[in-house]
């Protein structure tokens, strides 16, 4: 079991001898040992996923796994961390004008732009303001798109989604499959109350995906973003936890 050694390391730094004693006592049940060090471990474990350290622990849990970027799997897909080694694949996607034209951004002019984008994804996870997954096929794990949560409001339990997919895979149901798994994770693990999306009214593909997932159009955000020399209208869509449960 990895927990006592891992937990004792941090607790010993705080000179909490009572907690250290509990963690090392094999006669005390694992849950009680976790309870002793939970407040301190909580400072070191990222809130993605937002894990209840005591209640979600059992004797088979490896504590090092709680520190890792969460991987999600579907029938066809692996949702994994975006790495700098993905820069070429991400650049191929975000340099395509057909992919970026409804996303309020210009096509990336160089691979360096993709590297900066990946830096931003990783910073989101470090600062607990969001999380971005690479969408990859099981057969080769090559990045074919990304999806994730951003603009997370912990106070209001609200988050926004973002996503894009290589044009090669449009119309295959891959984005619907990826977002279905991601949204399930958001409501069941992260315990979000509201997941929302802002989308260009002309982006028919994205609108179709959101509606298929149960998102409801709430209204028009007039001249909401300034892009390429003009103000763009965007539509606000949202899915609430209570409606997700009802439809699920």
UniProtKB/TrEMBL annotation:
N-acetyltransferase domain sequence ranges: 77-241
Annotated GO CC locations: cytoplasm
Record keywords: Transferase
Gene3D superfamilies documented for this protein: 3.40.630.30
InterPro entries: Acyl_CoA_acyltransferase, GNAT_dom, N-acetyltransferase
Pfam families: Acetyltransf_3
Segments traversing the membrane: none
A GO term for molecular function: protein-N-terminal-alanine acetyltransferase activity
Name of the protein: N-acetyltransferase
Protein source organism: Brevibacillus fluminis
């Amino acid at each position: 079991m990895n927990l006592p050694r891992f937990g004792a390391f941090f607790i010993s730094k705080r000179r909490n001898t009572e907690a250290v004693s509990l963690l090392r006592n094999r006669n005390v049940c694992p849950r009680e040992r976790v309870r002793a060090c939970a407040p301190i471990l909580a400072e070191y474990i990222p809130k993605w996923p937002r894990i209840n350290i005591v209640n979600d622990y059992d004797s088979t849990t490896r504590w090092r796994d709680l520190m890792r970027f969460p991987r999600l799997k579907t029938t066809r897909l692996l949702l994994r961390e975006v790495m700098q080694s993905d820069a070429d694949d991400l650049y191929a996607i975000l340099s395509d004008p057909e992919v970026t034209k409804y996303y309020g951004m210009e096509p990336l002019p160089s691979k360096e732009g993709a590297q900066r984008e990946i830096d931003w994804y990783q910073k989101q996870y470090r600062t607990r303001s969001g999380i971005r997954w690479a969408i990859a096929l099981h057969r080769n794990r090559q990045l074919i798109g990304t999806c994730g949560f951003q603009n997370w409001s912990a106070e209001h339990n609200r988050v926004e989604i973002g996503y894009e997919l290589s044009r090669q895979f449009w119309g295959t149901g891959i984005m619907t499959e990826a977002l279905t798994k991601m949204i399930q994770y958001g409501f069941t693990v992260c315990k979000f109350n509201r997941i929302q999306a802002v989308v260009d009214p002309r982006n028919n593909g994205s609108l179709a995906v959101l509606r298929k997932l149960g998102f409801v159009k709430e209204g028009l955000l007039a001249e909401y973003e300034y892009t390429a020399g003009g103000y763009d209208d965007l539509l606000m869509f949202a899915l609430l936890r209570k409606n997700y449960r009802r439809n699920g």
